[in-house]
Specification:
Helices cover 4% and strands 62% of the residues. By secondary structure, the chain is mainly β.
């Protein structure tokens, strides 16, 4: 639908076209207000298969700990490029905010405004957060990191219950392709005491030319500096342990060691894609806590330590494929 150069330059815009099959694309808008405890994520997207196609809006009410999936005719999906915007039905999603007008199995109405973004821009010829992997044509899924942190103001009413966001924290990412990975762990937090501090980590089993490997993307914005600890930037997952409370891990580059302890909160089931069909299952929390320590490896000096409340956390590794794969690498 959009030209290839625009899509390569800006992963936030619609990457596909409506003629594709076994394809999905979805945007993830998360907002958390630590002061009011309001928590909400909304996922607009599309599902294109041989058996049919539709647009959808998925709502995760983190305050009521419930999720809703609303299906729409594909004709209601209206992506725009300049500036980026996605419309589905009477709802609108953009970098400047969202307008929600949903009536169905759930009533969701409200308006949120976004400002003061910390955008993620890939360096050089890298394709956003995917690095050079973003150019590989046969991956089962692709990831885009749009805004690591921004200010959210406004309110949303879900089935008569109002959530207010005042100077809250927002986050935007997206996925597109055929299917979510076989196993993965994802976490994201930006409700640290320090402003403009944000962490996102995703570790997954990546199919590759008849085999597979464990790959990860990890970025940490702290002290006005963005650290990219992803696989393609030389980062290595040195430790990974699932605990009774969540997950602990350690990622190292040549210069830094990042230690993370993610403590899970209340979870809901969200729908995820399997060959474009939204029949998969993702278990996610919006009330997790992420404890972070960053060390300089040369002198083992502590650069930063802190924690984020209102964090998102998904641990989808029932058969321990990630831990087993890391031991073999």
């Amino acid at each position: 639908m959009f030209d290839i150069f625009s899509r390569l330059r800006d992963p936030s815009i619609f990457q596909g076209n409506l003629k594709k099959r076994n394809y999905y694309e979805g945007w993830y808008f998360k907002q958390v207000d630590p002061r009011s405890a309001s928590r909400l994520s909304v996922i607009p997207g599309i599902s294109l298969t041989d058996k049919g196609k539709h647009a959808f809006i998925q709502v995760f009410d983190g305050l009521g700990v419930k999720s809703y999936y609303l299906s729409y005719p594909i004709e209601s999906f209206k992506p725009e490029k300049d500036p980026f915007c996605v419309r589905i039905g009477d709802s609108k999603f953009s970098l400047s905010g969202m307008e929600l007008n949903i009536e169905g199995d759930v009533s969701v109405n409200g308006s949120l405004s976004y400002s003061n973004h910390s955008f993620f821009h890939g360096s050089g010829i890298m394709r956003g957060i995917m690095g050079w992997y973003g150019y590989v044509p046969f991956l089962e899924t692709y990831h885009g990191l749009v805004s690591m942190d921004h200010i959210v103001n406004g309110s949303v009413t879900i089935n008569g219950e109002k959530q207010t966001f005042s100077g809250a924290h927002g986050y935007i990412e997206k996925d597109w392709g055929a299917s979510f990975p076989q196993s993965w762990i994802w976490m994201q937090g930006n409700c640290f005491i320090e402003e403009k501090t944000s962490l996102m980590i995703s570790i997954a089993v990546i199919p590759w030319l008849g085999s597979s490997f464990i790959g990860h993307i990890a970025v940490f914005r702290v002290n006005d500096k963005l650290l990219n600890l992803s696989t393609y930037s030389g980062g290595k997952v040195k430790e990974l342990e699932k605990t009774a409370a969540g997950v602990r891990l350690k990622i190292e580059t040549q210069k830094y060691a990042l230690l993370v302890n993610a403590i899970g909160g209340e979870v809901v089931n969200l729908k995820s894609p399997e060959k474009g069909v939204m029949t998969g299952r993702t278990v996610e929390s919006l009330s997790s806590t992420i404890e972070v320590s960053l060390l300089n490896k040369s002198d083992n000096k502590l650069i930063y330590t802190g924690k984020s409340s209102g964090a998102g956390l998904e641990i989808m590794d029932e058969r321990n494929l990630l831990i087993k794969g890391l031991k073999l690498s």
